[in-house]
């Protein structure tokens, strides 16, 4: 199965018990919901997956558990978010041993590398594997922007084939296409501008609220790519108050609460994160429950051909 960076790739949340242990039953149930909804790949251990609190053994278990469910249906992608280049290289090699089909690669963590250091980091990790690599460009949260000139250098590495575009600047899609044509697949990484970027030529969507609302997410993608804009827009407008939960520092807690309310997850997180309480929890519940009460009727979107 070759990896095509195209379609909807859920940034899956990592399910925990109330005691903070991995909840593999809950995790597996959500992955099955994603597959039934028609997603095109699974991204493990991302920011939404609470990468910073997972150890290597847990990452291996998550990859292998996911592969037991997905088989050859969709590719499984492992995120790499490390502070040390040698550890990132080790994780890349382990990912292939475990059966992952691709990597999502963040810039160096904790240290704000300059352009040369960042490019060297990306090149070193990507050169250590034959798995396809998606660069995660998120200067808002990680304070490092991967510029067009940096991508020109990264284009020299054949395994670097995609970008998760999370700069929150929709014009970056056009700039990337103007500069590089189809050299890099572009996947939107910000829920609130996903339809806009798909219309501008993005190939896919690494989504967050898909964890709680997989069918609506895939429907928007397929309808948009099929040119059925009016239908997609109606769903997207309903979705927007929920999608805004993706751009908050507590996106993990917010989206997990949405999973709970939608019946396909729990709100448990691993410390130092804490579950929501008080007015904040009630406010987010209002957003979620209002959306659930007005959930739109979806067309038969899985039969829509997407090229």
From TrEMBL:
Gene3D superfamilies listed in its UniProt record: Aldolase class I
Positions annotated to bind pyruvate: 206
UniProt keywords, alphabetically: Lyase
GO cellular component: cytosol
InterPro entries the UniProt entry points to: Aldolase_TIM (IPR013785), DapA-like (IPR002220)
GO molecular function annotations of the record: N-acetylneuraminate lyase activity
List of catalytic residues: 136, 164
Gene Ontology biological-process entries: N-acetylneuraminate catabolic process
Family assignment from sequence similarity: Belongs to the DapA family.
Protein name: 4-hydroxy-tetrahydrodipicolinate synthase
Species of provenance: Filimonas lacunae
